[in-house]
Structure formats: structure tokens, C-alpha cells
Design brief:
seven-stranded mixed β-sheet
Length: 238
């Protein structure tokens, strides 16, 4: 799960060559600026730290992971993808619930760490790639799409591209889980609040059913399902 900046960036990152929305001369936040800024941002975070968000030590992170796993409406998934896998801590927990899992992240160091962590999970593939350029384009559908702590690093246009991709690649009966930090991230145009507003606008009048929502003080967690059936309905309880 590539996430929010709860650690301090190296001092030389303040001299970045790309600009945030508020810094551009014409007030526009271009896709190229967003991509370059995010790449530099994560390179700085992972430059001398294999766990920049302390996934493995913070109770906040473990609690959030447990909540994400618990809210999934199915026990098992055939073909899953995680966008923004970071160093693979959540991927390792997700893997036992998937027959096949593709974990994607833009940062080379994070990908190396994720590959090491998942080396014994032969059904998991770890891929380095920038979202949305590296979204799978083959005619392969996923019955689980996990997007956590990544969309606010993208430009609004790129978020729209991801939304279109979800609509085209989420399998019938499949699950979409989105989780994002609620606070402002310095230098980025979007926040978890604006990202989830955008997601609700895109999916609330679509074939997807809003299955679950957790509004935590620190993060937003939404689950959509390409099915009208709740968990109780799936198990013939109602």
C-alpha cells in the first residue's frame, strides 16, 4: 500500500524540479508534472529507508490493514490486482485469499522489497510500473481490485483513466476496495476526501453496488461490488 507522508522526506527533496498545482505559472497541474513529482517523491522516501511508513511497526497501519481485509465481501478471489503495493506488506496478507495476485508499484526499491517478501508465493507477480500507464491492457478481468493510498498522487485526468479502466476490467461479481488517508499531502492537488468524492460520483450510478463504507478519523475506506448481492445474500441468509 503506497501511502501518505507520515515520515520526514530528505532535505534535498525540497529542491524538487517539478511543481505542485499551487506553484505552476498558469495554475494547471499537468499529467507529466504529477507523474514526475510522484516518482521523485517516492524515490526520496525509499532512498535510505526500506519501510518509510513503518508498515511493520505502527499500530495505525496494522489496524487499517486488518480492517481492509475484514471488509472484503468474499473469503477468496480468483484473480486480484493491488495498485500501489509499496514494499508488499499488505500483499503478503492478501495473497492467501487470492488464487492469483498482481502487485504493482512505481518505485524500484519498493518493488525489490516486495519481491523479496513474496518470493515464496508463486501465485503472486510483482510488477514495477507507473499508474495509469502500466495498467494491464490485455482482455483479463479481475474479481478483486485494491487501490490504497495512491490515487491522490495522480492528476485528475489520470484518476479518470483509472476509473474507466476499473469499469472495463472489474469482473462481474468482483470487488473494488479503495482506501485513502484523509489529510492534505503537501505538494499534491488531490486528497483522500476529493478522491473518494470522485469515486462515488463515478460508481454510484453504475453497475457497481456500494457494499461497505468506513469513515475513520484518519482514512476513508469504500468497497464496491459488481453484484447487487450482499454477503448475507451470497450465503442465502436473506
Amino acid at each position: 500500500m503506497s501511502q501518505h507522508p507520515k515520515s520526514t522526506l530528505p532535505m534535498n527533496f525540497a529542491n524538487r524540479s517539478t511543481l505542485s498545482k499551487s506553484e505552476t505559472a498558469d495554475g494547471l497541474y499537468t499529467d507529466m508534472q504529477a507523474a514526475n513529482y510522484a516518482e521523485t517523491y517516492f524515490d526520496a522516501l525509499y532512498s535510505d529507508n526500506s519501510d518509510p511508513w513503518q508498515y511493520q511497526t505502527r499500530w495505525y497501519e496494522k489496524r487499517k490493514r486488518d480492517m481492509c481485509l475484514a471488509v472484503l465481501p468474499k473469503a477468496q478471489y480468483d484473480n486480484a490486482i493491488e495498485l500501489g503495493c509499496g514494499n508488499g506488506v499488505f500483499s503478503a496478507l492478501l495473497a492467501p485469499r487470492c488464487h492469483a495476485l498482481l502487485s504493482v508499484d512505481c518505485n524500484k526499491q519498493a518493488i525489490q522489497l516486495a519481491k523479496q517478501r513474496l518470493a515464496e508465493s508463486s501465485h503472486v507477480r510483482v510488477l514495477q510500473g507507473v499508474i495509469p500507464d502500466s495498467l494491464p491492457t490485455a482482455k483479463t478481468t479481475f474479481d478483486l481490485i485494491v487501490i490504497s493510498e495512491i490515487l491522490y498522487y495522480l492528476s485528475p485526468n489520470d484518476i479518470d483513466t483509472v476509473i474507466v479502466w476499473i469499469k472495463q476490467n472489474l469482473a462481474i461479481g468482483g470487488t473494488l476496495l479503495c482506501c485513502h488517508w484523509r489529510y492534505v499531502i503537501d505538494g499534491f492537488a488531490m486528497t483522500g476526501e476529493t478522491v473518494h468524492q470522485r469515486l462515488h460520483q463515478a460508481f454510484n450510478h453504475s453497475a457497481l453496488t456500494h457494499q461497505s463504507q468506513i469513515i475513520d478519523s484518519d482514512f476513508l475506506l469504500d468497497v464496491w461490488q459488481y453484484s447487487p448481492n450482499s454477503v448475507a445474500m451470497q450465503e442465502n441468509l436473506v
